[in-house]
Specification:
Elements (H helix, E strand, L loop, with lengths): L1 E5 L4 H12 L4 E5 L13 E4 L7 H11 L2 E6 L6 H6 L1 H21 L4 E7 L10 E2 L10 H20 L2 E7 L1 E3 L14 H10 L5 E3 L11 E2 L1 E3 H15 L8 E4 L5 E2 H12 L6 E3 L8 E4 L2 H7 L7 H11 L3
Parallel strand pairs: 1-2, 1-4, 2-3, 4-5, 5-7, 6-15, 7-12, 8-11, 9-14, 10-15
Antiparallel strand pairs: 10-13
Helix pairs in contact: 1-7, 2-4, 4-5, 8-10
Bound molecules: nicotinamide-adenine-dinucleotide.
């Protein structure tokens, strides 16, 4: 028996894969190595495959039968908002097409448990500081749309053939559980700040005139190790016959402003840097944090790490 982890050598997938391996599970990773890194594989088995490629269903089905796959955790996706605006067709092909191939292979091979990487990007620009899962989703870019469509596809498979699924809507993921699994893409706030410091530049703050206490945007930063644990809780939940929910916010429930994150970076690194305030970016809600009541009450999960742990772990993994 084994667990199939798509995107299992990416930043988040490799943390989950590592936790599964530590629990003695056999892990099969499917990844096309586009942003993944083979050095994160550990003792898992790697099958190199583009999930959205023409033969993907056949290869997936073969792997499911050969390794007796009982559950899938699906991380593999394109995730850059700006790129999704420039190349929407490709985002649909990759994220929606890849998931469609996976669901067909699961249905045909009677693999009926799935944890799907969704995103707070499904909410778009909510006008509340803390969103619950019942809040109306209006994604504002193709990336967020592919995640919401993914949730619909999963819901349809649940109705049509009994898929058991959990959609985890991640908020702002950061930190490192192990230094070698750290986020190497310079796409999120903490890696962007570290990259700026490394280059001797002032980290940019996009907008300091929001209606928040210090004027900068507020986000809910969740430690990647906490997030990884949430996947294992979700897998356990899928074994229950009585399940009331299938969509869960994964965050801390507490927002931190960009200036608060930068202050923590100064404290942890000992570098007394200045910032450059730039105009607001289009589509940035002023404040976005998760209401985490559902995941706490239903899965018994809550975040154990705070912003300090996040910055410290990311800093100890950073190569300066
Ligand atoms: N990092 C975040 O803050 C965040 C927030 C919300 C949701 N997510 C979602 O979490 C998941 C993982 O994100 P991550 O930060 O680890 O990204 P990542 O880029 O580090 O990992 C994605 C992995 O999937 C692989 N991959 C991508 N497309 C593939 C395809 N078509 N076929 C096979 N493999 C493919 C990549 O090579 C990589 O190993 C994604 O679905 C992303 O949308 C991430």
């Amino acid at each position: 028996m084994s667990i199939l982890v798509t995107g299992g050598i990416g930043y988040i997938g490799s943390h989950v894969s590592r936790l599964l391996q530590l629990r003695g599970e056999d892990v099969i990773v499917i990844d096309d190595l586009s942003t993944g890194d083979g050095s994160r594989l550990g003792s898992a088995r790697l099958i190199e495959l583009d999930l959205a490629g023409p033969d993907a269903q056949d290869h997936l089905g073969k792997a499911m039968r050969q390794y007796d796959v009982t559950a899938v955790i699906h991380f593999a996706a394109r995730k850059q908002v700006g790129q999704s605006v420039e190349q929407p067709e490709w985002y649909y092909e990759q994220n929606v097409g890849g998931l469609a191939n996976l669901l067909v292979a699961m249905r045909d091979n009677k693999v009926n448990k799935l944890v799907f990487s969704s995103s707070a990007a499904t909410y778009g620009m909510p006008d509340v500081g803390q969103v619950t899962e019942d809040y109306d989703c209006h994604p504002i870019n193709p990336y967020g749309e592919t995640k919401l469509i993914g949730e619909w596809m999963v819901a349809n498979a649940t109705r049509a053939w009994g898929l058991r699924a959990a959609n985890l809507r991640y908020f702002n993921v950061a930190g490192a559980g192990w230094p070698e699994l750290a986020d190497t893409a310079v796409a999120n706030l903490v890696p962007i700040v570290f990259a700026a410091l490394k280059a001797g530049n002032k980290p940019a703050v996009f907008g300091d005139d929001y209606a928040t206490p210090d004027g900068s945007c507020i986000r809910d930063y969740v430690h990647v190790l906490d997030l990884a644990e949430a996947h294992l809780s979700a897998l356990e939940y899928l074994d229950l016959d009585e399940r009331s929910e299938s969509v869960f916010n994964v965050g801390t429930g507490k927002g931190s402003s960009v200036f608060e994150v930068l202050a923590e970076v100064r404290r942890v690194t000992g570098i007394d840097f200045e910032t450059e305030v730039l105009p607001r970016r289009a589509g940035d809600p002023p404040a976005l944090a998760a209401d985490v009541t559902r995941i706490r009450e239903t899965l018994g999960w809550s975040a154990k790490h705070d912003l300090k742990d996040i910055i410290e772990s990311a800093w100890s993994a950073a190569e300066f």
